[in-house]
Amino acid sequence: MWLKLSGFACLCRATAEFYRQHQRPHLSLTPEQIRVHPSDPTFTWLPARWLFAVNLDEGQGSTPLVHETMRKEMAQEIFVSSGEIDPTYTAPAIKQWPMGRELPVTVLLRSVERIPDDVDEQASRGLIRAHMFSDEVAFADFSEHDVFHITLRLPGSGTTKISLWARKVEEAERGLVVSGVTDAIPQVAWSQLERAKQQVLSDARTEVFRAFDHACDLYSLGTLLFRCLLVNPSRPFEVVQHELSAVLERLEPLVQGLEPDDHWTRFTRVSGRLKEQRDIFAPPSDCLSEFAWYDALIYGLRLTSRIPGFGFCGNTESRDTAALPGALHDAMQGAEHLAEQARIDLFEAAARHRELLRICDLVLAERM
């Protein structure tokens, strides 16, 4: 168990280091992208599994989106995974929002302004501010970095279409308020567009490009941790995932309103819920204390949850632009704490400590 948690802490450090170096999420955290290798082969007299390091395949990390018509300053904050990723480890947001997903939307044009610096007299761009909403999605967790390619069909014209690239600029009770710049609009269409101001355009469509961030990596890390701790030959990952989904669905009432530093109440409530499914979540042996075991499971739930005040990325209203986001830093520290807890439980009990010292003395005696 100590080896598993230590390896996971190494993986968290590698994920944080990838973000620190490249200033973007990895978005491809699967077992295939993780390498385990000896860290110091000179200590051949120690067990091989005591001397290992965990690294990520950086070449398989996310890459900036390449799009022919999206404005460069928008595209530079949109990242895509390096290839086909096992959906088991993919964050729900990525599965729900493939790049360029198209939606029918309703748009209320709040303001329309021509951009005066266009030199082409035949066409000019415009700055549009609009309220956009949809019957299919709520846009509740969208950020100001997500990008929308909106196509408007002007009323009274069956063929005139206006396209603009826009971002969220304001919250709304329903939908989003977005602002963006249109493509060049022929002069003949400008009068139609200006007449459409303050009108509702129900025949609009948008392509959605989500700016996925480190929260998706934390979800993948949580899934990897649960696979490491809970899956065995008699308990396939599908069963574990089903039970975890049931726990997460009922978790919010247990942790809602708790102070962030009220660790004991959080531990008592959530571990109590996990103990209701002892066939899945019970400690695997007597080697690790029950407290350390359930602390590790609660940590995994915090990685995969977006519940405010509970999940590491519970705040969906703002995006952390630090060199290393606070949520990723806290998750890394949490993983190191778990590994240290396991080390203390397994190696610092008096009897185990004496036995390890005896074995080490024997090894040293053989080498002398």
Verbal overview:
This protein is α+β, with helices and mostly antiparallel strands and 368 residues long. The protein has two domains: 2-91 and 213-358, Transferase(Phosphotransferase), domain 1, CATH 1.10.510; 100-209, Elongation Factor Tu (Ef-tu), domain 3 (Beta Barrel), CATH 2.40.30. Helices cover 39% and strands 20% of the residues. It contains twelve helices and twelve strands. It has helices at residues 2-22, 72-75, 92-96, 187-195, 214-230, 237-249, 252-255, 263-275, 278-281, 290-304, 326-347, 350-367, and strands at 34-38, 52-56, 63-64, 79-80, 101-114, 123-124, 126-133, 147-153, 161-171, 176-182, 185-186, 200-209. The strands form four sheets. Strands 5-7-10-9-8-12 form a six-stranded antiparallel beta barrel. It has a two-stranded antiparallel sheet with strand order 1-2. The chain has a two-stranded antiparallel ribbon with strand order 3-4. Strand 9 and strand 10 (176-182) form a beta hairpin.
Short description:
The protein is built from twelve helices and twelve strands.
Q: What's the CATH class of the largest domain, please? A: Mainly Alpha
How many domains would you count in the coordinates?
2
Order of adjacent strands in the largest pleated sheet: 5-7-10-9-8-12
Mean pLDDT: 87
Percent in helix = 25-40%
Largest sheet: number of strands, sense, barrel closure: 6 strands, antiparallel, barrel
H/I helix tally:
12
Oligomer: single chain
Instruction: State the shape.
Output: elongated
Radius of gyration: 26 Å
Please report the distance between the alpha carbons of the first and last residues: 32 Å
CATH topology of the largest domain: Transferase(Phosphotransferase), domain 1
Number of strands: 12
**Structural class of the helices, strands and pairings?**
alpha+beta
CATH architecture of the largest domain: Orthogonal Bundle
Low-pLDDT residue spans: none
H/E element order: HEEEHEHEEEEEEEHEHHHHHHHH
- Which percent range describes the beta-strand content? 15-25%
